[in-house]
Amino acid sequence: NSNIVGDIVFPAALRSIGTQAFNNNAGITSVAFPAALTSIGNGAFKGCAVAAYTIDAANTSFIIKNKAVASTDGTKLYLYPVADAATSFADNGVSTIAAYTFYGAKNLTSIVLDNCYNFGAYSLAATAVEEIKVQGTVGRYVLENCTAVKKVNLASGLAVPFGLCKGCSALEEFTTGYDMMTINDEAFAGCTGLKELNLGGY
Q1: Which of 41, 39, 82, 84 is nearest to 62 (CA)?
Q2: Where are the alpha helices (DSSP H) in the chain?
Q3: pTM
Q4: 150-190 residue pLDDT tens
Q5: pLDDT tens-digit readout, 50-79
Q6: Cβ atoms of 80 and 49 closer than 8 Å
Q7: Among 170, 99, 82, which Cα is nearest to 138's?
Q8: Are strands 159-160 and 182-183 parallel, antiparallel or unpaired?
Q9: How many whole angstroms separate alpha carbon 128 and alpha carbon 147?
Q10: Is 87 in contact with 110 (CB distance < 8 Å)?
């Protein structure tokens, strides 16, 4: 239902929320998860204007960490409240961000995840970051439509992932310390401002 408006409070017995279950319900402003919840699908609230997530204190699968929904050990992020007013996010205890975690967080101009080595598909897409480093396992379209990003540092493997910087029209500099053997489809599609492309070899 794309007409949901306001707060969502799930029933106490809810255990699972599917992939993109509430996709593009822009009227959703806050979400309260019950104690029984054990699974949240990728992009469950993609395209929603959520300003805050809360979790029942008895839940043993998730916690709130730096406003985001995280695993109980704090190493994996699942959801970030994209309508929150904060302009920066930093957490060096995170090793994994799920697909769509920060998707559409247009207030975030800085995201620092120095110890993150798993970036899910679209996990940073459509944010307002101006400079970013991604490393390790990097999914498809991770930075798609980050129209403010000017510098990207890829510290990962031998290939530029599919659609990594698609639509990053302000991108000026792309660097990597690895010798890239493959540039995958749409990696730099729409990067009309690109001035420097360093694909390793140094």
Answers
A1: 39
A2: none
A3: 0.95
A4: 999 999 888 999 999 999 999 999 999 777 889 999 999 99
A5: 999 999 999 999 999 999 999 999 999 999
A6: no
A7: 99
A8: parallel
A9: 7
A10: yes
